Amino acid sequence: MEGIPVYILVAYLVAAVLFIIGLMRLSTPKTARVGNVLAAIGMLIAIVVTLLLKEVLNYTMILIGIAIGGAIGGVVARTVKMTAMPQMVGIYNGFGGGASLLIAGAEFFRYMNLGEGITVQSSVTIVLTILIGAVTFSGSMIAFGKLQGLVKARPITYPLQNIWNLVIFLAVLGMMGYLVAVSGNIPVFIALVVVGLVLGVLLVIPIGGADMPVVISLLNSYSGLAACAAGFVLGSMFLIISGALVGAAGFILTRIMCKAMNRSIGNVIFGAFGAVVQTGGAAGEEGEKVVREATPEDVSMLIGYAKSVIFVPGYGLATSQAQHHVAELAGILEQRGTDVKYAIHPVAGRMPGHMNVLLAEANVPYDKLYDLDDINADFERTDVAVVVGANDVTNPVARDVVDSPLYGMPILNVDKAKSVIVIKRSLSPGFAGIDNPLFYMERTMMFFRDGKQAFIEILEEIKNL
Ligand code: NAP
Q1: What's the average model confidence in pLDDT over 375-384?
Q2: 317 C-alpha to ligand 1 centroid (Å)
């Protein structure tokens, strides 16, 4: 950091403070927009002052890069659907890891070309950046492929998988040690990059599609660590701080998601969850189980005359984009004197905060949204719980069936409500692939429709009450 003008160091500090305040504001929906803007301003300050450094040799290439990257980012941000957000984050993490890998590679070759020996500190940071960057890049690409349907979503497992991964990891450590000890060797450097990339692939293929958002969050944390390590390689205080923030934030988010699913991080990474299709006996017994199918009139009568209604949104709300229709129905019910609430499970949908974002888009007031712990006791006092495209997060087996893979995951106690309406297209299981006994309860009515279509029909009927 020697030789960097003081005003640039101060600007970096301001940018880092803006990142921290931005992150703090991202923790509640009310302040999240402002938080995002503050962090973006911090990043703009950091980029502008970095361009003022005299080491910058080629402004033309940088401007071309900004123009191409900015154009792609702008188009993607406007066109990618909310449901595809996890894979977008996944691919961005991969690029972050890839960029750190390239930085470390460039520094490695710079030292080799200079012909000077690399200090131990520099070689340790370079080899660490290479390993974390390579694992993050290839692991994120596989995670992206699984979520996008380009790679088989089911866990890919083979005998002695974790042992093989351990052997490869030890080989990587050996290569890293060798590179540090001999101050650089090009064939070993190339082997380290290749084996690091292979390790990233092998670590992610045994993880099922349902766990991919957790993996993406973990890889996000790795990409922060890779950037942090690259910061040490370049002697950049700003990269170290911002990388550490991303690393810590990604790790905290991973822990929150694991806690909401009652799983450990180790179980997500090594558990091959979803490798065996568990249907809770549904497939064989489907014929014996009875469901009560509802018509739009049944549903509107039940909801229209209820004193209290809790909407329970899930992934199907996102795919059918029914949020505006749900909010419209809630408005009509409130005008009729009904007490309306929304129950939000922390892992409903496919990414943290998924339901909050969708409902905020439909201008549902934040104070109508209740977290799992705050609403669970209300269900037994509630006339009607309306489940909109949610499944796993309402599955009572998670609470009651000890040998179920879902056992222990906190759920919304929808089955305790006086009546339940479930809106979904079929009896298909949710992402965990486990049948849901809620559908077969006597107090449950199934309204088999696409989410948005269901609400169009209910809204039509409720106006006639
Ligand atoms: P879910 O269990 O995946 O179930 C979603 C349901 O939506 C499906 O059963 C599907 O049934 C229905 N659906 C799909 N498209 C629909 C449409 N157009 N209209 C109406 N219904 C539709 O979803 P969830 O209850 O929200 O649970 C989330 C799952 O993702 C959990 O297993 C959670 O652990 C996992 N997960 C979430 C996160 C996160 O951060 N949110 C992270 C990791 C894992 P039909 O096909 O019959 O319509």
Answers
A1: 97
A2: 9
